[in-house]
Design goal:
The chain is of the alpha/beta class and 269 residues long. The strands form two sheets. It has an eight-stranded mixed β-sheet, sandwiched between helices. Strands 5-8 form a two-stranded parallel ribbon. Helix 2 packs across helix 3 and helix 5 crosses helix 6. The chain is globular.
Length: 269
């Protein structure tokens, strides 16, 4: 593990392999370890960058204003990476998309796995989850807060815990608990200004090869967002994985890695 210190934060990262750069950006219920099945597949042909976003894994959560996009830019500058493919999952997909819109000259290809959108009007199901998670976290019941995340995002809204690998489920729970345990600063972080216009209204500006991946056992919101992304980004390829929820690279690593490698080795759309 190495450390960079952009924008007042301590950002933990790893670099493996050699070749064209591929940067993997984790979900909001995980950290850079979620790519443990993907890094070994990529590193023979690519320089693979993984990192913990602020407030996750081994990275800090400082006070003051900053954005995940700014942290990514600063990390790439620190590493001397001028151009990279971005592979983002969930929150990481939102970061990858916004970075590609703000710094198009630095992105070769874009992979959005169960990606989010900052201005999405979330369903009552997801809003209710958020309220219950916040209540559990604020009361100090981290076990319940973690389990709420596992039920919705790992199991999926239409499955039970027996539908997924128990070790994988426990691993995601460990990463989520780690994020909950990182000290919250006083004063709290300042919310960054939203991207204007939002990414959802600028998808037509993406002019690089793009891959959208989603699981059919994810929450309905994520499948709808995948449709919006695939329709809005010219030439984007969309893949829906059956019997798969939100943690695509961990639940279906063989399928995800095969699709990813095929996309990375394809010369054009």
């Amino acid at each position: 593990m190495s450390v960079a210190e952009p924008n007042g934060a301590r950002i933990a990262y790893d670099v493996n392999g050699s070749g064209p750069a591929v940067t993997l950006i984790h979900e909001g219920i995980a950290d850079r370890r979620m790519w443990r099945e993907t890094v070994p597949v990529l590193e023979p042909d690519f320089t693979v960058v993984t990192y913990d976003q602020r407030g996750f894994g081994d990275s800090s959560l400082p006070s003051g204003p900053a954005t995940y996009v700014d942290d990514l830019r600063a990390l790439l500058d620190h590493l001397g990476v001028e151009r990279t493919t971005l592979v983002g999952a969930s929150l990481g997909g939102r970061v990858a998309l916004e970075f590609a819109l703000l710094q198009p000259e630095r992105v070769d290809r874009l992979v959005l796995a169960a990606a989010g959108l900052a201005d999405w009007d979330w369903s009552d199901e997801v809003k209710r989850f958020g309220e219950e998670e916040e209540e559990a976290y604020e009361s100090g019941d981290l076990d319940r807060a973690v389990e709420l995340n596992l039920k919705l995002w790992v199991d999926g809204p239409r499955r039970g815990p027996d539908a997924v690998d128990a070790d994988m489920r426990a691993f995601v729970g460990e990463m989520q608990r780690r994020a909950f345990e990182i000290p919250f600063p006083d004063p709290p972080p300042t919310a960054p200004p939203p991207l204007e216009p939002p990414a959802s209204e600028r998808l037509g500006d993406i002019a690089i090869p793009a891959l959208v991946v989603v699981g059919d056992e994810d929450v309905e919101d994520m499948m709808q967002i995948a449709d919006v992304l695939a329709a809005g980004i010219a030439g984007a390829r969309k893949v829906t994985l059956p019997d798969t929820a939100h943690m695509i690279p961990l639940e279906r690593p063989l399928e995800f890695n095969r699709i990813l490698l095929d996309f990375l080795h394809t010369d054009s759309r």
